[in-house]
Amino acid sequence: MRKIAVFPGSFDPITTGHFDLVQRAIPLFDEIVVAIGVNSQKKYLFSLEQRQAWLKQVFEPFPSVRVDTFDGLTAHFCNEIGARYLLRGLRNASDFDYEKTISQLNNIVGQGIETVFLISQPAYSHISSTIVREIIKGGGDASPFLPTGLELKSE
Ligand code: ADP
Predict the structure, then answer these.
(1) pLDDT band, residue 155 (cuts 50/70/90)
(2) What is the number of H-type helices and E-type strands within the chain?
(3) Torsion over CA: 74, 78, 84, 85 (sign)
(4) Strand-by-strand arrangement of the 85-90 sheet
(5) Which listed CATH number (3.30.420.40, 3.30.230.10, 3.90.960.10, 3.40.50.620) goes with 4-145?
(6) Cα(136)–Cα(152) distance, rounded to whole angstroms?
(7) What is the best residue among 6, 18, 32, 103 to mutate for testing ligand 1's pocket, by most ligand atoms within 8 Å of CB?
(8) Given 24, 66, 91, 133, which residue is catalytic?
């Protein structure tokens, strides 16, 4: 059976931290689906179309990585596309506390879906989309935190 993993997130915007994580996970899975979860209650800095376009651009060179979007529960999306694994990153203890509960829930709701965690590399553990958004809103240069070739135009 093909090993398919979903890497779910908001990617508002994608950072070098996300990019590094996916690159490190490529040898582990036959396919990785980087999936933007659409939550109508949440306010995003960048539109869904823009976030999706950036993901497609960044992962274009990697044939086993594709980009998708979903609404509703992550576990239901995994079941729909036949993915038995979730991929998530751990930067620190608060990521762990949050992710632990979510992964236990996804295992139940998704009937056995396993979450695979990769510990972030030290060079990326301080990077989050939240910090990048703050830099952009404050008019700073966010390029050190963005994958190469990604051009940010604030919307
Ligand atoms: P969410 O909206 O679910 O928080 P994000 O886009 O912020 O989505 O993050 C998606 C995933 O990427 C999470 O598992 C998060 O831990 C991981 N991640 C984000 N930034 C980094 C980083 N710098 N290093 C490793 N993993 C990261």
Answers:
(1) low
(2) 5, 5
(3) negative
(4) 65-71, 31-38, 4-9, 85-90, 114-119
(5) 3.40.50.620
(6) 9
(7) 18
(8) 91
Domain ranges of the chain: 4-145
User: How far does the centroid of ligand 1 lie from the alpha carbon of residue 80, in Å?
Assistant: 23
Residue pLDDT, tens place only, 72-127 = 999 999 999 999 999 999 999 999 999 999 999 999 999 999 999 999 999 999 99
List pLDDT tens digits, range 16-46.
999 999 999 999 999 999 999 998 889 999 9
129 classed as catalytic: yes
Nearest residue to 10 via CA among 59, 69, 62, 63: 69
pTM of the model: 0.95
Distance CA 15, CA 22 (A): 11
